[in-house]
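Troubleshooting log. The previous run stalled partway through. Resubmitting the same three chains, unchanged.
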Amino acid sequence: MDENYKIPISITIDPNDVYKLLIRIPNGKVTTYGDIAKQLGNKKLARSVGKILHNNPNPIIVPCHKVVLSNGKIGGYAYGLKMKKNLLKNEGIRILKDGTIENFHKIRVEY
DNA sequence: GCCATGGCTAGTA
DNA sequence: GCCATGGCTAGTA
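Second attempt completed without errors. Output:
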């Protein structure tokens, strides 16, 4: 009997759930890929969340730029990191020299 | 085999 | 910086 055996079911995240979560993040706050995944039931799906955001069909109303890495660094952005930084800056969020978000622990919302 | 991640470790300053 | 993760996709057969 192998206790390590894992039943090969695959759990998928519904993109709409991600978007719904995102639109209630206040301006000036951020969350992480992992936090979103955890909130939707499986913290291991952080990468999938990133992929979903990459395919965000409506960047105007879904603020993808508020999602960053769990280590406080900025993460990716479909329209270029420069734009992501600018969007964050417009909400009063500053990026430090080392690429890390100022006061990350204070403005991070984990739900 | 890729990837918009995460966590942990070595090893620098 | 390295490796585990897990779903997805291109591209082969």
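Takeaways: The two ends of chain A are 39 Å apart (CA to CA). Chain A is about 35% helix and 5% strand.
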